[in-house]
Design a protein that fits this description.
Elements (H helix, E strand, L loop, with lengths): L8 H4 L9 E9 L2 E9 L5 E8 L6 E5 L10 E7 L4 H4 L12 E9 L5 E8 L5 E13 L6 H4 L2 H5 L14 H5 L10 E4 L2 E7 L6 E8 L5 H23 L23 E8 L3 E10 L7 E10 L8 H4 L3 E4 L19 E4 L1 H10 L6 H7 L1 H8 E6 L2 E6 L12 E6 L9 H4 L8
Antiparallel strand pairs: 1-2, 1-8, 2-3, 3-4, 4-5, 5-6, 6-7, 7-8, 9-10, 10-11, 12-13, 13-14, 15-16, 17-18, 18-19
Helix pairs in contact: 8-10
């Protein structure tokens, strides 16, 4: 699931020192438990903040550099680990009180001199119990400037920044991909289109996501890598909600914080189309991590089966365009989107096409209350179901979430005028 974004506008544009920070990822054990750790490190090699997660739990715990902590290469570093907030421990942000983190443990780590291995101890401040820590370096990434170090570690900051590192790949987000490396509960193989899929459930979030086990004699490895990125993107809001019980990761004394966000709602993923050229899937459900209303979502994804890369509407439909802050068409590859003014959507011709041909068998009350013709212009989505091109709606606000409907279904054999040359190449029925 891509929504809701668990960041406020204030966080995205938070003022802070313009540090050229680098995030260093480690994996290993703490007291015999498998963990991943990521440190935001200054150019001088001094850790500024960090996060870690037990793989068996999945959510992130904030780490703060203790006063007097040195550089990695100079010997021991000291980190303070936050404990979950309560009003008594952290203050009440909902009452406008100034809040502060509470700490439950202290880490003392030493580097091997080349920052490849960290070893040391974690001491529980309440019990005094000390457990050994051993970590190996697994990856590095640059962090955005002018954002406080702890917030800069949140993957949403980069994903919604439009920066070159925004693609969700193991190279760009080593910590978050390593966190996905846990035993899953496999489902049965199910035939879909030209292949077979298996829904594997993550025991931490209960999210069951497909992997392709067979695909018409071809190796589905690249496609499964693309699915792994989609799965992580869907899991991030849940892990973020679990982590929001900590002050450093957005605690606001909300009842839902500290839960997985899907309690009472859940999410489901269906595979709508599978061939050696293209895969289409739909994620739908309800997510709530505080606030007035849950996010009821239904989102569609297309993946190139040969590369695993996303197939996006602007490369799929002839009538999809990008517009800038003045409402005029722009090239998204060269557009300065630092103010988030870029808008992707159907042009006037495509809007008129769908409006004219869309299904109008809804009852009169639904037609009147849902304003479908307006939604075609603002919330149109496209996917493939079976052997049909389908126009539908997505990203509807809570008040009209019940208006989610498929509007128009066109057999692929008849859809060529709507598709780009790149899109047409995904369908054998359109081969010439």
């Amino acid at each position: 699931m891509r929504h809701p974004v668990l960041l406020t506008t204030a966080l995205l544009f938070a003022a802070g020192p313009a540090l050229a920070l680098e995030a260093v990822t480690y994996a290993g054990t703490v007291g015999g438990k498998n963990v991943v750790l990521e440190l935001a490190v200054s150019p001088e090699g001094v850790p500024q903040a960090g996060r870690f997660a037990e793989l068996a739990k999945g959510f992130d715990v904030p780490l703060h550099a203790a006063e007097g902590s040195g550089a990695l290469s100079d010997g021991a570093i000291r980190l303070r680990e936050e404990k979950p907030c309560t009003v008594e421990l952290c203050g009440n942000p909902r009452e406008g009180e100034e809040t502060k983190p509470a700490f439950g443990a202290e880490w003392v780590l030493e580097s091997d001199g080349e920052n490849v291995v960290l070893s040391g101890t974690r001491r529980d401040l309440a019990t005094g119990e000390t457990t050994p820590v051993t970590l190996d370096r697994k990856g590095m990434r640059d962090l955005p400037d002018a954002i406080p170090p702890l917030e800069a570690l949140d993957p949403h900051v980069v994903l919604y920044s439009g920066s070159p590192g925004a693609a969700l790949t193991p190279e760009n987000f080593p910590y978050d991909f390593l966190k996905q490396d846990v035993p899953l509960t496999p489902g049965p193989d199910t035939a879909v289109g030209a292949g077979k899929v298996r829904m594997d459930e993550d025991p931490r979030t209960k999210l069951a996501f497909p992997i392709v086990t067979a695909l018409d004699g071809m190796d589905p490895g690249a496609l499964n890598e693309g699915l792994a990125a989609l799965k992580l993107q869907s899991a991030l809001p849940s892990f973020g909600c679990l982590s929001a019980v900590y002050h450093g990761f957005g605690w606001f004394n909300e009842d839902a914080q500290g839960g997985d966000g899907y309690e009472g709602g859940g999410t489901s993923v269906t595979v709508d189309h599978l061939s050696p050229r293209l895969m289409a899937l739909t994620e739908s459900g309800s997510f709530w991590c505080g606030g007035a209303h849950p996010s009821n979502f239904s989102e569609h994804s297309l993946l190139d089966a040969r590369t695993g890369q996303p197939v996006i509407p602007e490369t799929f439909l002839r009538g999809w365009q990008a517009t800038g802050r003045d409402g005029e068409p722009v090239d998204p590859a060269t557009y300065d989107n630092s103010d988030y003014s870029l808008v992707q959507g159907p042009n006037e011709e495509l809007v008129a096409f769908v409006r004219e041909r869309r299904r109008k068998q809804f009852d009169a009350e639904q037609e009147e209350s849902c304003f479908y013709d307006e939604l075609v212009a603002t919330n149109l989505a496209v996917t493939v179901k079976g052997e049909s091109l389908v126009f539908t709606l997505q990203d509807l606000p809570h008040a009209i979430a019940a208006c989610k409907e498929d509007l128009l279904e066109i057999p692929l054999a008849d859809a060529r005028p709507l598709l780009t040359d790149e899109a047409a190449a995904h369908f054998p029925v359109l081969d010439r």
